[in-house]
C-alpha cells in the first residue's frame, strides 16, 4: 500500500477561524490519511510577496512528492488562473499570481497545469473560497497520485514577482527587506551567492540609517544587542540584533531599502 | 485494519501554552494514530457563541466518523454536563453549554449521551481541566469505535443559544455580527436562505451607520476599498471591504447590529 | 510494522515564518509517517524558563517513546552543547541550556547523550539554524528506533535552572510567577506538594499588593471576577480571576513575586 502523502498549507486565513480547518476536512475526505503540515496561516492579508518568500524557504526541507497548497488570493472571484506546478519533484497548487516566485526563482518547473476540470472540485463552488472548493480537491487529486493532466491544460507561462531580485551596480547591491521573522530579524532579497565575489569582510551593509561593517557568521560571535549582518539559514543576507529585535531597533520591516556596498566604494551619505 | 480516525480540536486555550498539547497526548496515548486537526485555539476566552459559530462552519467539510472535541468551558468545576452528540454521522464531544448550537441549528442530532462513566477518564481528574481528563478520553473512546452508551445515559435535551436567529419583521431582518475573521470581514447571523424571497439587488444592508445597496457576489467585482455585502462561503450574509478590513473601517465586531431591509421599506434613520 | 512515532515541537520561532515547517520537512523526510504535535511556537523569544515550564507540563500526557524536540536556543553558533535525554521512557532533544529543567525536576534521566555525530545531520549545517540541521535529524534518528549512542558520547551532567524552586522559610514560601496562560492565569513555581503540610484554608497568598485568603478548588465555586488561588491542572499553585484575567487585573506576569504565608504568621506589609 502506498504511504499517505504530505500536504503543506500556507495561507493568509489567520489561525482563528474555520477556513483552514474546512480546507483540511475536504482534503482528508478525498485523500484519507494525508499528513498535513501548517506552514503559516498568518501571511499578511493578501501579501503575495510574503507568501512567495515563506514557500520558497521550505522547499529544500521536504521530500519528493510533497504537495504544497498555498492560498493568498486577492483575486478570488475574478478571472485569475489557478495552477498546479511540478517543481523539484514536488507539487505546488496555488493561484497564478506570483506565489510561485520564491520556488521557481532558482528551480525550473517541470510542468504547469491550469486547474479547470469541473469534476475535480466540490459540488458547489463558493465565489469567495476557491481554496476549499477548487484548490483543496485539486491537491487531494495529486496526493492520491492522480494525473495532473486531468486538472486542465498545460500552461507554458506563469506569473512571477520582480521583488526577489535586487538592483546591482558596480558598487554592490540595492535591495529590500522581504520578511521580518518572529525574532525581529530582517531578511533581505540579496542572496549569499551574489555577495560571494568579494570577501564578506569587504562589504558594508546600510539599512535605516545604520551602517554595519562586514558580514558575519553566527549570532553567538557578537555581544548582546550588536547590530549585525549575516547569511541566514536559507542563504539570504539578513540583519539581526544579537539576542534582540533588529526590526524594532531600526523601525524597519518589509520594503525597507538595504544597501550592500563595497567598503572602498561610495557611501550613500 | 481500521484506518485511524480524525479528531478536530476547537478551544479557547490559546496557541501558547501546554494545555492543547496535553489533550493531544492523552488522545494519542489512548487512540494511537489518530489524525488531529486544530480548528482554532483562539476562540475568545469563554466565548461560547464564537466557538459554536466556528464549529458549525466546518462540519460539512469533514468525512463521516470525524470526532470534534470542543472546549470552551466557563462552567468547569460546576455541575454543568459534558455530552457526546451524534450529528450528521460525526461526533461532537463538548460541555452542554450551547457549543452545539451552530451544528444542531439545521441538523437533528441522532443521539446525545451524557459523559459520566468514571472508568472512561484519567485516573486523576483535575477540578479545572476536564478537557484533558474527561473529554479527551471520551473522544478517544469514540475514535476507537467504542459504544457511546458506555459513556453514560442518553439525554433528550441539550442547551442551545438563541443568537443564531435574527429577528424578522415585514421589512426584513435585524441581526448581529457573530464573527470577525482574520480579513476583518463581518459575518452575520442572517442566512442566505432567509434572504432568498427577494432578488439580492432589492435588499439594503445597514451596519454601524453605513448603508450598502444590494447584496453582491464576489470581492473581485468591486473596486478596492468598497464596502460590500455578500453571501460568504458558508451561506451567511457578511459585510466586507474589498481588499480591506471592514471591521476596522466600521469599528464593528461581534455583537454589532445589522439591519437588512427591503429597499422600498422604511429605513432606520 | 512498527507504528510511526510521535514528535512534539516546542520553539520560540513564532507561528508566522518558514522555520517550523522546515524542521518538520526534515523529520518527515528522514522518519516518514511521524505524527507531529505542535506544543507551542510562541515561547517568548529566547526565554528558556518559559520553554522549560511548558515542556514539563505535557510529559505526563504523552505515551512512552514520544520524542520531544525543543528549540529555544540563544546560544546557537556558540559552543553550547546539544543533547538527547531519556526521561520517563520519552526522549528530549534540545540544547543543554536548562530547557530540560521542568522535566528533570522530579524525574531522573535514564541517560543523556551529547549530539555530535557529523553523519546524523544535514549535509550543510547553517550557523544559525541547528534546530533544522542537527536537532531534527537527531530526533528522526530516535523516532526510527536508532541507538542513542550513535548520536555521541554519554554525558553525566546537564544544565538546570534554579527558578523552579521557591525560597522556603518558617512562615511559608516566596516564589515567582513562571507562566501567564491565555486566560491570564498566573502559574507559580510553588508546587501543591510543598503546601500539603497545612490545610489549604490556612494559607494566605500575596501577589502584586493583593491578599487572597486560602487556596481554593475550582473556578466555578466563586463569583465572577473573584481573585482566587488554587492548585492548577498540573499541580502548581496559580492565581486566577474567575471568568476574568488575573494578569491584567494585577498587572502581573512572569517574574512577579508570590508570597504564600501561614495565616498566623507575619505579613509582608
Describe the structure.
The structure is a homotrimer of 269-residue chains. The first copy, chain A, is α+β, with helices and mostly antiparallel strands. In chain A, a hairpin with a 2-residue loop joins β8 (167-169) and β9 (172-180). In chain A, strands 8, 9, 10, 11, 12, 13, 14 and 15 form an 8-stranded antiparallel beta sheet that branches. The first copy, chain A, has a 7-stranded mixed beta sheet with strand order 2-1-3-5-4-6-7, sandwiched between helices. The first copy, chain A, starts with 5 loop residues before the first strand and ends in a 7-residue tail after the last strand. Chain A has helices at 19-30, 48-58, 101-104, 130-143, 192-195, 246-250; strands spanning 6-11, 35-40, 67-71, 82-87, 90-95, 111-114, 154-155, 167-169, 172-180, 186-191, 203-207, 210-213, 227-231, 236-241, 257-262. Chain A binds chain B through residues 12-26, 28-29, 32-33, 36, 38, 41-42, 45-46, 74-78, 126-129, 132-133, and chain B through 3-4, 6, 8, 15, 35, 37-43, 53-55, 57-58, 61-63, 66, 179, 181-183, 217-221, 230, 232-234, 243, 245.
Amino acid at each position: 500500500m502506498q504511504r499517505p502523502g504530505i500536504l503543506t498549507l500556507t495561507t493568509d486565513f489567520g489561525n482563528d477561524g474555520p477556513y483552514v480547518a474546512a480546507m483540511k476536512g475536504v482534503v482528508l475526505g478525498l485523500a484519507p490519511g494525508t499528513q498535513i503540515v501548517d506552514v503559516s496561516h498568518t501571511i499578511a492579508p493578501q501579501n503575495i510577496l510574503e507568501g512567495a518568500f515563506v514557500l520558497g524557504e521550505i522547499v529544500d526541507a521536504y521530500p519528493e512528492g510533497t504537495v504544497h497548497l498555498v492560498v493568498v488570493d486577492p483575486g478570488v472571484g475574478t478571472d485569475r488562473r489557478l495552477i498546479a506546478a511540478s517543481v523539484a519533484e514536488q507539487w505546488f497548487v496555488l493561484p497564478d499570481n506570483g506565489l510561485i516566485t520564491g520556488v521557481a526563482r532558482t528551480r525550473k518547473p517541470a510542468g504547469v497545469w491550469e486547474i479547470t476540470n469541473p469534476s475535480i472540485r466540490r459540488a458547489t463552488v463558493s465565489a469567495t473560497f476557491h481554496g476549499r472548493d477548487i484548490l483543496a480537491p485539486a491537491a487531494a487529486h495529486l496526493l492520491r497520485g492522480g494525473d495532473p493532466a486531468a486538472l486542465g491544460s498545460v500552461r507554458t507561462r506563469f506569473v512571477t514577482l520582480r521583488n526577489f531580485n535586487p538592483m546591482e551596480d558596480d558598487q554592490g547591491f540595492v535591495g529590500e527587506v522581504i520578511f521580518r521573522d518572529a525574532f525581529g530579524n530582517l531578511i533581505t532579497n540579496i542572496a549569499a551567492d551574489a555577495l560571494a565575489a568579494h570577501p564578506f569582510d569587504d562589504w558594508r551593509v546600510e539599512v535605516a540609517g545604520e551602517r554595519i561593517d562586514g558580514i558575519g557568521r553566527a549570532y553567538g560571535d557578537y555581544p548582546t544587542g550588536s547590530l549585525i549582518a549575516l547569511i541566514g539559514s536559507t542563504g539570504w543576507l539578513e540583519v539581526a540584533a544579537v539576542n534582540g529585535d533588529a526590526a524594532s531597533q531600526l523601525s524597519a520591516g518589509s520594503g525597507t531599502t538595504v544597501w550592500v556596498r563595497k567598503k572602498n566604494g561610495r557611501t550613500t551619505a
